[in-house]
Amino acid sequence: MSDNVLSRNPTTGDIIATYPLLTEHQLEAALQQSADAYTLWRDTPLQKRVNVLRQLGEQLRQRQDELAKMATLEMGKPIAQSRAEVLKCANLCDWYAEQGPAMLADKPTLVENQQAWQAFRPLGVILAVMPWNFPYWQVLRGAVSMLLAGNTYVLKHAPSVMGCAELLSSLFDATDLPKGGFTLINVDNAGVSTAISDPRIAAVAVTGSVRAGAAIAAQAGAVLKKTVLELGGADPFIVLADADLDAAVASAVAGRYQNTGQVCMAAKRFIIEESVAEAFERRFSAAVQALKIGDPLEEETFIGPMARYDLRDELDRQVQETVQQGARLVMGGHKIEGAGNYYAPTILADVTPQMTAFRQEIFGPVAAITVAKDAQHALELANDSDFGLSATVWSGSEAIANQLAAQLETGAVFINGNGASDPRVAIGGVKKSGYGRELSSFGVHEFCNVQTVWKNRR
Question: Among 14, 60, 94, 348, which is most buried by a count of CB atoms within 10 Å?
Answer without folding.
Answer: 348
